[in-house]
Amino acid sequence: MSEVTNPLGLVGIEFTEYATPDADYMEKIFADFGFSKLKKFKDKDILYYNQHDIHFLLNKERGGFSAEFAKSHGPAICSMGWRVEDAQKAFEIAVERGAKPATDSTHKDLPYPAIYGIGDSLIYFIDVFGDKGSIFEQDFVDLEEQVVVEDKGFLRIDHLTNNVYKGTMETWANFYKDVFGFTEVRYFDIKGQKTALLSYALKSPCGTFSIPINEGKDDNNNQIDEYLDEYNGPGVQHLAFLTNDLVASLDKLDQTNIATLDIVDHYYDTIFDRVPWVKEDRDKIKEHQILVDSQSEDCYLLQIFTKNLFGPIFIEMIQRVDDGGFGEGNFQALFESIERDQERRGVI
Ligand SMILES: [Fe+2]
């Protein structure tokens, strides 16, 4: 990894931290998705959940940064920890490259070096992982009553998508490019029946995750502006969990309350003509309302989206068979599905 292409030595995502006014609800969602409740941060009311290489923190502190965050945003992703080779060095270089350090009075006593990310959220730099140990061993203690649930095959975070105000997409894209060395992979202009959005996808310099950024178009309460109103600012719109067997993961989710978006029946009239090399059971794909996309022969991806799950935030589940896309072929179907949902709710 060269200095130029990966100036901070970024190597992936270590954790995602949630702030919420309703921790019981979040605990239920995490359990439904197959995350086990294992530990808590030393001396703090911050719970640690795990499934394979996905690490979640649920911040239940009643004061301080996350409590304030939940007050202004409702349920939200208030921070992420990103893996780097040297946390202090990454922090210093990030600040040199234009990031705002989280060293003001509202961010006293942070456990790791941090900068401001999207909205008021934080990005921590974490350099203890893999061969060097684990912050979850070092800084967390086992819960007396752990809640271990069956895992549902979710392996890691594939991507996270940001929603931003009109006219600021480029500013945010430049933040990820200039500070971390993200590169642009794709640009989309998507139109529904009544609304439209622009989307710009960025890939991390380590290649382990990507960040698409969405901005609404026009002033007719498109789904991005609806998010911004409800969330009270820019932030994470959805996280995507990677699985190697989406059908099996969804079979296991059937027993839960997690609801996914309805896809129009005629979607399945043509999808297997467009992507005939799908190996999974086609009846199962249709039954679960899984979306299919492909960029080239023998490569494809399967994906599905929950309805808004906590606040305006939802979860995507994705399986990749040599396909590095975002399901571009489905953007239209998906956009229209959300638009139908907006219409049902009387928003547009
Ligand atoms: Fe996505």
From TrEMBL:
Entry's Gene Ontology BP terms: L-tyrosine catabolic process
Residues annotated as domain VOC: 12-142, 156-307
Coiled-coil zones: none
Superkingdom of the source species: Bacteria
GO molecular function: 4-hydroxyphenylpyruvate dioxygenase activity; metal ion binding
Pfam families, A to Z: Glyoxalase, Glyoxalase_5
UniProt remark on cofactor binding: Binds 1 Fe cation per subunit.
Cofactors demanded by this protein: Fe cation
Ligand binding (Fe cation): 159, 238, 316
Keywords attached to this entry: Dioxygenase, Iron, Metal-binding, Oxidoreductase, Pyruvate, Repeat
InterPro entries (alphabetical): 4OHPhenylPyrv_dOase, 4OHPhenylPyrv_dOase_C, 4OHPhenylPyrv_dOase_N, Glyas_Bleomycin-R_OHBP_Dase, Glyas_Fos-R_dOase_dom, VOC_core
Family per similarity comment: Belongs to the 4HPPD family.
PANTHER family tied to this protein: 4-HYDROXYPHENYLPYRUVATE DIOXYGENASE
Protein name as annotated: 4-hydroxyphenylpyruvate dioxygenase
Classification of source organism: Bacteria, Pseudomonadati, Pseudomonadota, Gammaproteobacteria, Alteromonadales
Name of the encoding gene: hppD
